[in-house]
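Morning F.,

Quick status update on the modeling queue. The single chain you submitted on Monday has been processed. Sequence for confirmation:
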Amino acid sequence: MWRSKSSEHLAHSLTDLMTSLMVIFILLLLVFINNEAAVNASITDALLAELKRQLPAQGFHPGQIALDPKDRYSIVITVPNDLLTFDLNKHTLRPEGEDFLRTRIPTLAGILCDPNYRNAIESVVVEGHSDATPYRGATLEESQNQNLKLSQDRSMEVVSKSLQFLMEQPGQRACMLEKISASGRGEQDLEETADRSRRVVFKIRVNSRSEELLNRLRNVAR
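Structure tokens below.
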């Protein structure tokens, strides 16, 4: 009987010890990740400041370079003067759009591929959009599906042209090829007019995996 009680007491003690160690480990990890998340936010702010410093000379207004209101770690760049908008039902760039990418993309790539930011940047998303104009003879769902594909084609056109205009800077092209992707949003996030809705924007996202892990661990610790 004495041996049984002793073993049971030892088992409870080991369980309590393991639980305490687990709690300590989680708390230390939370502190580490919280610090890492703060670093990521600082990198986002520094990159935003650098973009606002350099891009106005390329025709951008500071108000066209801003944090994404939906994502603390993303910066949205809106192209000025509707230069990257598209004709109805078209995904090919207008001549002024091609000229814009030819002259501005090397500058943007030079900032994003700078050693101070390159490793911290998770992605550069070219986000394409459409208007909500219905297709003749199509149902609402069919129109939405076609506009989604059209917006994807628009974003892919800008990605392709951007990489083409970096051919003379192979280092920057390799960097952008690693980061850049195309995303079609269809009829989401419409602008005030149909003409302005048919557009692309650039979204630059800083690595935020530590923040996501931080939120998961906080839930575990509750």
